[in-house]
Amino acid sequence: MLTKSLAAPPSPPSPRKRWTVLAVCALSMFLVGVDTTIVNVGLPEIGRGLDVGTRGLAWVVDAYTVVMASLLVVSGALADRLGRRRVFRCGLIVFGLASLACALAPSVGALVAARAVQGIGASMLSPVALAIVVNAMPDPRERARAIGVWASVFGLSMAAGPVTGGALIAAFGWRSVFWINVPVVVAALVLVAVFVPESRGERTRRLDLPGQVLLTVLLCLFVGVLIEGPHLGWTSTAALVGYVGTAAAAAGFVLVERRREEPLTELGLFRRAPFVTAVLGATAVFVALNATLLLNTLYLHHVRGWTALETGAVTLPMALGATLCAPWSGALVGRFGPRRPLILAGGFITTGGLCLVNLDRDTSVSSILLAFLLIGTGFGFANAPLTNTAVSGLPQSRAGVAGAITSTARQVGAAVGIAVAGGLVAGVGHADLAAATRPGWLLVSGCGLFLFLAARTADSRPARSR
């Protein structure tokens, strides 16, 4: 008995096993990122196949991102309580079944509903994957490098979604972008069962159901107003009701969270400037990325008459920039801290957006490719320092919630980017569409400029000294 009670705790996993865990989590995260953007390039085909316009197409994308964003925090908390591997596997199963429903959807309503269920599954993957990685990497410098790899894979998936989608649609039709998820989910389930150890938070909290409901209502109303506003009219009665409902949900959420002993979101964290700017920076980066992808798809398809495959191929420089620069960014964070890569990210995204401010029917392809390379490079540099700053702002035992807050900011940004970009071109004729996109490119540049503010407030110390 005494020998048992004094037994040494289990030794930490070997470096090989730690990086294998990262690889398995990265594969699953690739699914989440791809499905955030793979649909963008197929929107014209979906619109023709299901007879739906721009507003309905915006909901096809945002039903996924809004539901995922609203449930990320509670999924992270559930993972800390019930076991991260268990929740991760459940998320894969839900995601796979919802992908089947998307592939078989007979109408746009059915597709939007299936995409919402997909978002539920994805919410169990994104924060939990990061929590598993952080838990497996106890050394700060190794953790910074791992986050760089994780951000690289996630960035690659976001940028490669349109390329993959274009190829699949050209060969098999738009439903294939959902069918492709099924074998990947099966493979991921097997790998998780074999390689990923179970882990939990050192301290678990009660579930905050009132806070969860209010957060879901808040995000749905906010994004709904952005999508439906151009159609309803920004001063219409329905829009005014949406404004009031959004404000009431926001106020109720803050009030409930301040009074609960164990809130869904720890509002006290938002008193720290570095944490706030990291979360807002993550939102801005994904606003820029998703606005870019949607505006690009609609412009190239409707104005230039390009196919889905050609439209997706144009984003290859974006995927290249994101893939090459994200690991480099992680190394920079580990050695110098997050400030330098954030400055680089802000400069590249700002310049890329400005390259397209005067977009018209005759803009050269080389100019578009250069802009996408710059934006992708900025995206690659941005994710690791923002993620590292946000995760470092919370205790390691709250890794699930830390990842969830950052991932929520990303998905809110994705939803807002789609909603705003869709609103800019909703109801615009093909002849005027290029000019209608120009405010969107100014928005992309503004998102890049915000990263300079995030760099000013970020911790300038390298990861090893923190």
Furnish the topology, listing elements before pairings.
Layout: H1 2-5, H2 15-37, H3 43-50, H4 54-82, H5 84-103, H6 108-123, H7 126-136, H8 140-172, H9 176-179, H10 181-195, H11 209-232, H12 237-259, H13 273-303, H14 308-314, H15 316-336, H16 339-354, H17 365-392, H18 399-425, H19 433-436, H20 438-457
Short description:
By secondary structure, the chain is mainly alpha-helical.
What can you tell me about this protein's structure?
The protein has 20 helices and no strands. 78% of the residues lie in helices and 0% in strands. The two termini are 40 Å apart. The longest helix is centred in the middle third of the chain and has 33 residues, at 140-172. The chain is mostly helical.
Q: Which key features would you list for this structure?
A:
single chain; 466 residues; mainly alpha; 2 domains; 0% strand; disordered N terminus
Say what oligomer this is.
single chain
Largest sheet descriptor: none
Uncertain residue ranges? 1-10
Strands, total number: 0
Radius of gyration using CA atoms only: 21 Å
The number of helical elements comes to 20
Arithmetic mean of pLDDT: 81
Superfamily (CATH H level) name of the largest domain: MFS general substrate transporter like domains
Distance between the termini: 40 Å
Question: Structural class of the helix and strand makeup?
Answer: mainly alpha
- What fraction of residues sit in β-strands? under 5%
What is the CATH topology of the largest domain?
Answer: Growth Hormone, Chain: A
Helical content (DSSP H or I, runs of 4+):
over 70%
**SSE string, helix = H, strand = E?**
HHHHHHHHHHHHHHHHHHHH
CATH architecture of the largest domain: Up-down Bundle
